[in-house]
Amino acid sequence: MAVYTSVPEDDLAHFLAGYDIGQALACKGIAEGVENSNFLLRTETGPFILTLYEKRVDRGDLPFFLGLMEHCARNGIRCPLPVRDRTGEALGMLCGRPAAIVTFLDGMSGSRLDAEHCAEAGEALARLHVAARDFPVPRPNALSFSGWDSLAAQAGTRADSVEAGLSALISTTLDDLRGTWPDSLPRGVIHADLFPDNVLFLSGRTPGIIDFYFACTDMLAYDLAICINAWCFDAEHRYDAERGQALISAYDRARPLEADEIAALPVLCRGAALRFLLTRLVDWLSVPEGALVQPKDPREYSRKLEFHRGVSNTADYGWSR
Ligand SMILES: Nc1ncnc2c1ncn2[C@@H]1O[C@H](COP(=O)(O)OP(=O)(O)OP(=O)(O)O)[C@@H](O)[C@H]1O
Ligand SMILES: N[C@@H](CCO)C(=O)O
């Protein structure tokens, strides 16, 4: 459950009075997710998602995210659309938080992932990269390599209270990446959080893509590395080469990878594993008082990082062209 900010009925009624979607019939906090306060909002005109943006979303970035969703929808991606109020605004304030209403997307997140799910996710990611290619607004990635030192400093040696040796693993990985992090790969708009809970499968339809709130401008192959980590390990956090082969080859068919992107995948996967290890670790060590949230376990990503540290080339992921 992730509800950091509750919404009293009369505040919600006042907020909705500015929209043309009818009165609220129900508004329920949503269990999944850890970053924002999400509610399933049903009004007289149908289902919506009400989101109150929390600590990791900068209000100034919201026009980028909402504009990107509209751009992707216009370019064939099945994703939510922001609902604009009577003044044409997609972004408001509710209970002291920036807030927006988006359309509800049908579909289910895959609970038991298989190679088919991974192939669909790989293709969906590549289609998203192609669809967003001409989105005109840049947004630096605050959670790329340049942001990891400060996250590591926030956790500091408290990391070892979560798992013995974790602070050493983090500092060693940061040192390794400092000299090898790529800086000349193809760049564009990336989703940066395309985990299974952000892809909604529905038979006969392209997968729905939600949660654009980490989208930014960065290396496209880094987004693929984030997906390899999120989709291609089993419940015991062991790499599944069949899933990896399915995901990478489906991506490559929809947006052919360049040779230097292929060669860089192992280092990108290490960096992507470190990024989510660090954000999960910081959240794990600092759950706000009273928040209804189940933080995600950082040790899942220390396992994945250890795996990638043993990978010497991309063929080890089960895929080669
Ligand atoms: N437009 C939508 N249509 C249908 N369901 C949605 C939509 N947006 C969000 N959800 C549901 O709400 C859940 C949480 O949403 P979201 O992933 O955006 O939250 P979050 O706090 O950013 O979570 P995280 O970043 O940890 O994935 C999703 O997993 C999905 O079940
Ligand atoms: N998808 C992220 C949470 C949002 O950044 C994780 O699983 O750590």
UniProtKB/TrEMBL annotation:
This protein's pathway: Amino-acid biosynthesis; L-threonine biosynthesis; L-threonine from L-aspartate: step 4/5
GO MF annotation list: homoserine kinase activity
UniProt keyword terms in alphabetical order: Amino-acid biosynthesis, ATP-binding, Kinase, Nucleotide-binding, Threonine biosynthesis, Transferase
UniProt key word Kinase: yes
Catalytic activity: L-homoserine + ATP = O-phospho-L-homoserine + ADP + H(+)
SUPFAM superfamilies for this protein: Protein kinase-like (PK-like)
Keyword Nucleotide-binding assigned: yes
InterPro entries named in the record: Aminoglycoside_PTrfase (IPR002575), Homoserine_kinase_II (IPR005280), Kinase-like_dom_sf (IPR011009), Pseudomonas-type_ThrB (IPR050249)
Pfam families: APH (PF01636)
Membrane-spanning residues: none
Domain of life: Bacteria
Enzyme class, spelled out: transferase
Chain ranges of the Aminoglycoside phosphotransferase domain: 27-257
Entry EC number(s): 2.7.1.39
UniProt cross-references to PANTHER family, sorted A to Z: AMINOGLYCOSIDE PHOSPHOTRANSFERASE DOMAIN-CONTAINING PROTEIN, AMINOGLYCOSIDE PHOSPHOTRANSFERASE DOMAIN-CONTAINING PROTEIN-RELATED
Protein family per UniProt: Belongs to the pseudomonas-type ThrB family.
Protein name, UniProt field: Homoserine kinase
Gene: thrB
